[in-house]
Amino acid sequence: MVLASTFMLLFWKLTNVPVFVYIVFLILSGFFLYGAQALGTIATSKTATRRVAATACGFHGIWGYLSVLLTGWVGGWFPY
To answer: Is residue 64 part of a domain?
Structure first.
């Protein structure tokens, strides 16, 4: 998550760079975000039994979406 945040910060703060550099920053930030989400799902499926692994991964995913919804809603109240 630190690397994803770093690349998003670079994407946001650097202004006089070619478009290709922006594309690379976005690709790398997406790669590091997906890695954290995939590792959480893998850990969930390894912890659960074979019969409930899919349910556990779905439950894990729902909490991920709810946290994004909550942070987006709360963050929308703060002025930039």
So the answer is: no
